[in-house]
Amino acid sequence: MIHVDLLQITLLLLAIIAVPWMLFPKPFILKKLHSERFQGRTYKMLGTSEMDMDVEPDFARQHDEDFNFSEVFVHQMIHSIEFVLGSVSNTASYLRLWALSLAHSELSTVFYEKVLLLAWGYDSIIIRLVGLAVFAFATAFILLMMETLSAFLHALRLHWVEFMNKFYHGDGYKFRPFSFASLTDADD
User: Fold this and answer.
1) Are 168 and 126 in contact (CB under 8 A)?
2) How far is it, in rounded angstroms, from Cα 31 to Cα 2?
3) Residues 42-97: pLDDT tens digits?
4) Do the Cβ atoms of 30 and 67 come closer than 8 Å?
C-alpha cells in the first residue's frame, strides 16, 4: 500500500510541476532566440556625413516591434490553462464512465442475488421459471442495453471531446454546402 501511495504522490507532484513547465520556458526561449537573431541590428549604422546619425534604420525598428514578450506570455498562459482544464475535464469524463460501469456491475449483482437466487430458493417450478424469465429480461434488455449505451457514450466521447481538444482549432474558411445552383450561377 505504501508503494501505491508513493506512486500517487509522485504522479501528483509531477502534474503540479508540469503546469509551470508548460507555462514559463517557451516565452523566455522565444525572447532569447529573438534577441540573438536580431542582435546588432539595432545599433546605429556607421555612415557618411550625408546620413543622419540620429535616425534608426527601418529594419532595426521593425524587428524590435515584432516580438512582444507579454503577448507571447499571455498566449502561452491561455494554452496552459486550456490544457489543464482539458485534462481535468477528460479525467472527470473517464470517472463518469467508470462510475457507470460500476453501477452496471452492482445492478447485475442485485439482479442475480435478488431475483435469480431468491427464485431458485423456492420449490415451485413456476416461481423458478418466473424468476429465470425476469432475470433473463433484466440481463438482456436492461443491462445489455445500458452497456451498449455506455460503449456508445465512450466512443462518442473519444471521437468528439478528445479529438476536438487535440486537433480542432476553429480556424479556416466558412463552410459552404455543395449546391448545384451555385455551380450554374458560377458558370453564367
Assistant:
1) no
2) 44
3) 555 555 555 544 554 554 444 445 778 889 899 899 988 888 888 888 788 788 88
4) yes
